[in-house]
Amino acid sequence: MRFTQVFGGITAALLVSGVSAAKIPKRQEAPPASTELPIPSSTPTEAPIPPVPSTPVPPPPPPPPSLPPPGTPGLPPPSLPPPAPPSSTENPIPPPVPTEAPIPPPPPPVPTSSTEAPVPPEPPASSTSTEIPAPPAPPVTSSSTEVPVPPAPPATSSTSVPAPPPPPSSTSTQEPPPPPVTSSSTSVPLPPAPPVTSSSTTAVPPPPPPATTSTATSVTSEPAPPEPVETCSSHLLVDDFSQWETGENSLQGATSDDQTMNSTSTDGGILSFTPNNIDVSYIYEQFECFDSVAQGYDSLSFNIKGPEAASVSIELQTASDCASSDEYQSFYYTVDGLSGSLQTINIPLNSWVDANLNGVVGVLWYGFSAGLTGTDNQWQLDNIQFLCAAVPPPEDPVPEPTSEPADPEPTSADPEGPAVTVTSTVYVTVPADDDDDGPTRTPQPLLPIFPKPIVPTEPPWWEEDPWEGWPESSSRPAEVTATVTEIVSPSDEAGLVARQDECKNLLVDDWVSQSRLTFLYYNALLKSTSDDETMKSVVVKDNRVTFTPQDTDSYFYTQLGCIDVQAYGGVSLRINAPAGSTFDVQLASTKGTCGSENENYNEATLSTKQLGWTFNGKEQLYSIPFSKFEGVDLTKFEMIFISNLLKAVTFGPISLYCGEEVTEYIPPAVVEPSGPTETVPAPASQATNLVIDKFGNKDTNALGQWHGADEGMTMTFKKNTMTLKTNDSDLMWVTQVGETCRDLTEFDGSYLHIAYTGSNLFTIALQQHNEKCNNDIYPYPETWDSLEAQRYATETDIYIPLEHFNVNRSRAIGFAFKGFYGAEATVFSVIEIVNKVPEGFTIPEKIPSGTFVFSCKRPNSFAFAIDDGEPSFAQQVMKTIDDANITVTFFTVGAPLRDPTTNLSAIYNEMAAKGHQIALHSYTHPPLEGLPDDASIDWEYTNDIEAVKETFNGLTPKYFRPPFGTEGARMRQRLAALIDEPYIVQWSVDVEDWLWAESDTPEMQLEAFKRDVAAGGDIVVMHYLYNSTVSYLEEFIKIAKATGKQLMRVDQCMMDPNAPPLPGEE
Questions:
Q1: I want to staple 684 with a disulfide (CB 3.0 to 4.6 A). Which of 627, 691, 836, 1064 is the partner?
Q2: pLDDT of 430 above 60
Q3: Distance CA 402, CA 413 (A)
Q4: What gap in Å lies between CA 850 and CA 861, rounded to an integer?
Q5: Contacts 24+ apart (CB under 8 A), 14-18
Q6: Contact 639, 554 (CB under 8 A)
Q7: Is the pTM above the cut of 0.70?
């Protein structure tokens, strides 16, 4: 297994023998107990080995108590009850609902033909009757008190296994049933009732299909119910939306969306609407309580049009009886796989399992999900009615051949008949649960309600999952639901919301830096975080991280450092994952004493399915409630561990939220720094023009000089053009103007002109030769100045005054294109020096960019410039330097200075006290010029500067070494904007420890040092990261002293007037 060590900001890979890769076991019912848990090392510099989940899934907690009804006098405005996981196409966590919901007027009585109390119908006297009776009551036996179970679907129905159901809403403790198994055929009749047997299971015959003749099954195991005074003779119209604007339905009851929709319209006699959000938008119908069984109504029917493959959920509200109908209970049902056309949905009322059909009081539609494309959000609803069992069902709606809403009523004006529509009769089979006597239900007042949990109705998720589904012996797994009631407003400048005695979201990681995550292996808490190279890729962008797994053994962890999180309710984060994605979430706490050696962990693991999460390819907010992870000690919380990823997943900022109210961390808005905007006219020059390159030859330019690129850059020559493309900001392409030095001062007053198309996100540099114009003497080039192409560019041309290149132009080598930071390629067609620019073209002012150095300015000087390394080698480095009686410069990365486990702050303070120079090396060690914007570059600089100030009593160094030596116009300009007259320090002596230190020939570091010193190099780059490099330091110093040069700090070798004097100097 490969895992990483953090050596004061420099990373090395360590191959550990005898330790197998952490692997999350495949699961049938719950994760098996693990007999071995890899334990993260207590060594501060070593990233821990993430633990393997071992704790069985805890059962869900009891449902929350019911809330008072919305709108109750003297109570606060209603709030949204915690939602359950939605269908696979929408957001599982809703934004807040409106703070107030109007209470509709009391519904009037349902019109009936009799004023007498209805009684249940008597079973038909003859098996040959053509009248379709209401569903008969189930037989009563002495051996069973089980809840009646609806019939199984026919063979033509989907074989989908229902996904786990959600927990109940906060206004009802009743647990909704699993999702329906939706018929895939048109107008599928229900199967006949099974015969009565001596089995202890009570068989319940289904309602017969409307408009057909069937043989009623006689039930002899119980007395026949009394005959009702009168049953229905027609369907009961609830709403045709002809009175939508008045808030009344066809029964003179209340109907509304409570302004939860983006828009509603009843043009064309049909309700058209655009939902605002799957967890906010709803439409309800309320009416006087009626006994659907006694009156012979057996189904709910409505016409609906939604996006193709979308789903919608329907809540049926029933009272215990119509005599005391001041309270209702809620029961849930979901229809999925809508056709995209206006279609009729007929749902047998007994599909709402356990609902009291003797007291129906309301219906609500909610959970309007996205469809197949995710872009269609137009819905229609019409012709809501309860179907009388003795009357044929309504015919299919006929869509109009226009874009206007379709009229559900058939029309004779269409000679070719209706367009393709779908009529679906849907039904569900509830899995048996031998250990459950049924949920406890809490009655609710008959008042306007809010959306309830949505039961997922996606295809069987284990078709793409290796767990092979839940065991047949259980009806469903234990489930946990992620909930949220508030999203933090971006207006909060700190990105945090105070809760409960000034408690604020605790940021774990905001994904602000690629290098902090994948180079230093730090999160925002400066604690260890890593994928241990198990991922195919880890990409940070725009405060998001995308993990692409290599296989199911890929994982990622982030540590918090054994902290007390009792004030927090859980973890919140945004996730964007493809539909069907699954993975595991493990939380771990420290056993024993925090910080002790050989730490062990208590851990608990839940899958995203057990957390109730579903994904649809859109970013959504999720929460990980601590209460669902049994066995984790919140007083010593240590780690979040993600594993078993099957597909690429993108995470947003991770934070702990306070209490039970889920809030998210929102990073502060990125504010791009403003640079100079002034421009000046471009005067003409008297110089002649000089064509440098027209790309007619892949090896030489128009001057006959060499042009070419670093290895790794793609060059394409075609028809006097050259296309450059690279994703590495460290690579460059150069076209030379002379064999050694060329004097370009004769072109002073002229302009460098570059004709191009495509990206202008790159740097243009003019290289300066060394003093002797000798290609064999280091440094070569001696320096260059870099300008930002975009500042001088139109869409096709770049014009730069030669005077803007702050170098000695009498010793010009050539022009370089470098520091590319865009994905788009650039096509060049000409590079030339011209004496004028097109009329109207203005030139931006020159931006300061600091002093860029490779070598010392002081004669006969030599400087050791040492970058960060492994803290355990620091004392040996200091002893070697002390013994040699020299001072050196240390370039330090800022983030590890703030990590107390590295002890680097103490080490460097000791070095500074001995007279060594402390200089800047960025905050997290990224290739700065490759960062996407100036704000990202500034983040590195400002944090590095502040970390050094904190550590060294207000010190603000002006010397900076770019990580990896990656230089460009933007990183120089931004540094110069933050630090006055900075030095950007490269090197002319490279010990090549990165190449040889861990090879079979580490002595090659000595050879590299000797080679560069012999060529005249005098500023060193090395790291005290490797034992071999540190061991050779004494020899390096001896070789440098043998040159006769005086060894000193970088600022001293640059003759900086603010540098301390050399020995013997005043």
A1: 836
A2: no
A3: 14
A4: 22
A5: 14/46
A6: no
A7: no
